[in-house]
Amino acid sequence: MDRGEAESDAEGANTEAPAGEEREIDRFLAFLREQKGYSPFTIRNYRQALREFAERRRGKDWWSTEPHELRDYLYELCLRPELGAVSIRVRFAALRAFFARAVKTKQMADNPARSVSLPRLARRLP
Prior knowledge:
The protein is mostly helical. Helix content is 60%, strand content 0%. It is built from five helices and no strands. Helix 1 (3-11) runs parallel beside helix 3, helix 2 (19-34) packs antiparallel against helix 3 (40-57) and helix 3 crosses helix 5 (85-104). Residues 19-103 form the Core-binding (CB) domain.
């Protein structure tokens, strides 16, 4: 799968964020793709994670996100039997990076995702 196919797959994800949030997601992902060189697969996964969280917030402004909202979201994800710790951590990697960029560009004062503790990964036995 080439870059264009991965991007078009990302466009077709079943979760659609409201228009304002979608614009912010697109800007952030363009930054990751063009400035940071993230892979198309990472871009696709981050897009899906950010859209899912935006849809959950039902059009609330990104920049008003509070840590308790992210903890509530984490709790909901942990209740989904199809999601393992790795999948949850990928979703939060996207959110942490998104909000870290917002802090760096002065859209937010603090990263609300920074204080959220994530589930630990299971240790493999030798």
